[in-house]
C-alpha cells in the first residue's frame, strides 16, 4: 500500500484494499481501526465467504455482477477467487457470461472501469488517457465494440470484453493486474436498440467511418506510444472492415496483435496439432473448410498455411488446402463480392451454395465454424464429414454458446462418437454410447494470456506470426495421452495457469532467440517467468 494512502481511501482502493484481512496493527497504522468489524480474516476465509455468496445466486449474470463488484472493491480477493477454481470461474468472467453482461452493460452499469475514449475528444486522447492512475502499463486490450463475440455491434457496452480479457491475463498467466488497462473507443454505434434506449451509456450517433476513424485510431496509437512506451496493444472485437487494415497498418511498427485474428488462429492450430495426435495424420495431408469468411477464418487459414510451409509445402500449396464458405456460398474465383484479405483462399471451383455440397466436393478433414451463426453444423453436415473421414475434425468456434455452430452433444451423436471436437465457448462433458467425452474449449484464452506473459518477461518489440505458431505447438505438446483418450485436445482448464506459464516460456525463448527482446536473457526462462507471475496474496 502506498505511503500517503491512509484511512478511508485505502478501503476504497481496489488494488490495495484488504477488507476484513487488514491486521490490527495495519488498522492502527492506517487510521482505519473502527471502520471494520473486529475479526481479522485470512484470505482463505474471505475466499470461502465469496464462494458462499455465489452459491446463493442462481443466475450466471448475477454471479458475474457479484464478481465484478468484488473486482472494484478488492482485487486480490477477486483474483484469489477466480484462481481458486479457473474451470468454474472462467465461464463466469469470460465467455459465455461476459456476452450477456455486455448486452446488458448499460442496464447493469455500476462502477466505472478502464478508459473510455469518445471520438468527440479527438485531439485530446493523450490527456484523457493520462487520467488513468497507473503509469507503467504493459497491456492494453482495446475494442470499438463493433463485433463483440458473435453478438455484433454493442457500442460502449462492449467494454466487458477488454475488462474480461485482461482479468484472464492475470488469472490465467499471472500478468500483474496493475500493468493492464482496458479501453473502449467510442465512435458511435449502429445498434438502433441502444440508440433508442435512454439507459445507453455511449455516444448517441452512428459509427464514424473512413478517414476520420483512421485518424482517430492513429491519434490513439500515438497517445499510447507516448504514455506507455513498453506497452503491447491488443485489438479485440473490431469488425473485419477495421480489424484487418488496423493490424496491417501497425503490426510491423509497434508491439501489437489482434486476438481474434491471431490468437484464435493459434488456438485453432493448437487444436489441429492435438487432433493429429489422435488421428495419426500429418498436417500437410489436411484439408480445411471454414464456415464463415471473416478475419477470424482467414486468420486461422493463414496461420495453418504458414505452419504447413514449415513442414515443406509452398505457401500456395498450403493455402490451396484451405477453403472458405460464407453467406454467399463457397469462395471461388467467379465471386465478385470478395475483399482482398479473402483472395488468397479463393480457389478455382464451380459456384457452390450448399455447405454439404462443398463438403462432398472438397472432402475436408476439418470444418471450422467462425460464422457467428448457430446451428450451421447440422446433422447433414456432421454426417457428411463422418462419411468422408474416419475421425472428422469439427470445431464450432463462434462465441458465446448461443452462437456456436453446433453443440458438443450434437457433434458426438451425429458422428457416432467419431468427431474430434472443440468449441469456442465451453460445453460440459458428454456421455455417448457408454463413453465419456470431454469437449475442449478452443478459445484464444489458451494463447493471449501466455503471449502477454511472454511479452512482459522479454519486453518484446513485436508480436510476430511465428510467435503464434510457437504458442500453438507449446499448447498442443502439453496435452496428455489420457486427455486425448477422452477427446480433450487442449490442456484441462483446471490447470490453465500452469499450461499458460509453460507456453509463455516457450514463446519467450523464441523471442530471445530472434533478438526481439529488450531485456537480457535470463539463465532459466521458466523460473524467470514463474518468478514474475502474479500471486493473489496480500503483499
Ligand atoms: O472472447 C472470446 O471468447 C473469444 C474471442 O476473442 C471472440 O469470440 O471474439
Ligand atoms: Mg474476441
From TrEMBL:
Cofactor(s) essential for the protein: Mn(2+); Mg(2+)
Checking SUPFAM superfamilies in the record gives: Aminoacid dehydrogenase-like, N-terminal domain, NAD(P)-binding Rossmann-fold domains
List the active-site residues. 94 (proton donor), 165 (proton acceptor)
Residues binding a divalent metal cation are 236-237, 260
Give yes or no: UniProt keyword Ribonucleoprotein: no
Q: Which annotated residues bind (S)-malate?
A: 147, 399, 443
For this UniProt record, the keywords arranged alphabetically read as follows: Metal-binding, Oxidoreductase
The entry assigns this protein to a family as follows:
Belongs to the malic enzymes family.
> Sorted alphabetically, which PANTHER family does this protein's record hold?
MALIC ENZYME-RELATED
Name listed for the protein in its UniProt record: NAD-dependent malic enzyme
The organism is Fluviibacter phosphoraccumulans
Amino acid at each position: 500500500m502506498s505511503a500517503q494512502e491512509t484511512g478511508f481511501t485505502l478501503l476504497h482502493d481496489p488494488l490495495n484494499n484488504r477488507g476484513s484481512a487488514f491486521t490490527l496493527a495495519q488498522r492502527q497504522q492506517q487510521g482505519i481501526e473502527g471502520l471494520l468489524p473486529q475479526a481479522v480474516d485470512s484470505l482463505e476465509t474471505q475466499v470461502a465467504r465469496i464462494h458462499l455468496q455465489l452459491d446463493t445466486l442462481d443466475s450466471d449474470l448475477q454471479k458475474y455482477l457479484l464478481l465484478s463488484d468484488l473486482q472494484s472493491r478488492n482485487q486480490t480477493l477477486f483474483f484469489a477467487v477466480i484462481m481458486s477454481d479457473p474451470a468454474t470461474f472462467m465461464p463466469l468472467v469470460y465467455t459465455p457470461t461476459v456476452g450477456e453482461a455486455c448486452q446488458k452493460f448499460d442496464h447493469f452499469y455500476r462502477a466505472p472501469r478502464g478508459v473510455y475514449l469518445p471520438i468527440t475528444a479527438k485531439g485530446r486522447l493523450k490527456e484523457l488517457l493520462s487520467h488513468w492512475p497507473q503509469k507503467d502499463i504493459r497491456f492494453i486490450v482495446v475494442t470499438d465494440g463493433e463485433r463483440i463475440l458473435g453478438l455484433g455491434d454493442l457500442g460502449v457496452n462492449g467494454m466487458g470484453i477488454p475488462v474480461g480479457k485482461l482479468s484472464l491475463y492475470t488469472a490465467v498467466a499471472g500478468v500483474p493486474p496493475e500493468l493492464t488497462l482496458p479501453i473502449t473507443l467510442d465512435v458511435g454505434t449502429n445498434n438502433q436498440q441502444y440508440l433508442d434506449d435512454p439507459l445507453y451509456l455511449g455516444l448517441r450517433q452512428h459509427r464514424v467511418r473512413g478517414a476520420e476513424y483512421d485518424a482517430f485510431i492513429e491519434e490513439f496509437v500515438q497517445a499510447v506510444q507516448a504514455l506507455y512506451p513498453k506497452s503491447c496493444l491488443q485489438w479485440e472485437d473490431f469488425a473485419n472492415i477495421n480489424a484487418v487494415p488496423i493490424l496491417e497498418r501497425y503490426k510491423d511498427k509497434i508491439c501489437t496483435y489482434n486476438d481474434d485474428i491471431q490468437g484464435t488462429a493459434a488456438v485453432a492450430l493448437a487444436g489441429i496439432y492435438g487432433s493429429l495426435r489422435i488421428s495419426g495424420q500429418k498436417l500437410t495431408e489436411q484439408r480445411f473448410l471454414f464456415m464463415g469468411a471473416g478475419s477470424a477464418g482467414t486468420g486461422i487459414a493463414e496461420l495453418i498455411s504458414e505452419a504447413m510451409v514449415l513442414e515443406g509445402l509452398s505457401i500456395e500449396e498450403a493455402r490451396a488446402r484451405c477453403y472458405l464458405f460464407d453467406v454467399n456460398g463457397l469462395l471461388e474465383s467467379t465471386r465478385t463480392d470478395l475483399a482482398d484479405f479473402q483472395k488468397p483462399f479463393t480457389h478455382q471451383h464451380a459456384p457452390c451454395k450448399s455447405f454439404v455440397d462443398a463438403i462432398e466436393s472438397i472432402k475436408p478433414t476439418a470444418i471450422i465454424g467462425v460464422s457467428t451463426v448457430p446451428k450451421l453444423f447440422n446433422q447433414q453436415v456432421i454426417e457428411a464429414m463422418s462419411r468422408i473421414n474416419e475421425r472428422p475434425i469439427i470445431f464450432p468456434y463462434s462465441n458465446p454458446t448461443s452462437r456456436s455452430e453446433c453443440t458438443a452433444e450434437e457433434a458426438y451423436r451425429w458422428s457416432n462418437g467419431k468427431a474430434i471436437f472443440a468449441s469456442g465457448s465451453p460445453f460440459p462433458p458428454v456421455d455417448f454410447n457408454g463413453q465419456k467425452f470431454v469437449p475442449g474449449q478452443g478459445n484464444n484464452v489458451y494463447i493471449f494470456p501466455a503471449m502477454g506473459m511472454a511479452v512482459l518477461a522479454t519486453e518484446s518489440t513485436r508480436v510476430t506470426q511465428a510467435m503464434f505458431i510457437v504458442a500453438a505447438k507449446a499448447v498442443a505438446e502439453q496435452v496428455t495421452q489420457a486427455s486425448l483418450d477422452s477427446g480433450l485436445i487442449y490442456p484441462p482448464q483446471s490447470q490453465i495457469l500452469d499450461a499458460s506459464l509453460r507456453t509463455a516460456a516457450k514463446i519467450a525463448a523464441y523471442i530471445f532467440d530472434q533478438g526481439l527482446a529488450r531485456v537480457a536473457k535470463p539463465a532459466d526462462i521458466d523460473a524467470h517467468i514463474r518468478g514474475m507471475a502474479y500471486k493473489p496474496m496480500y503483499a
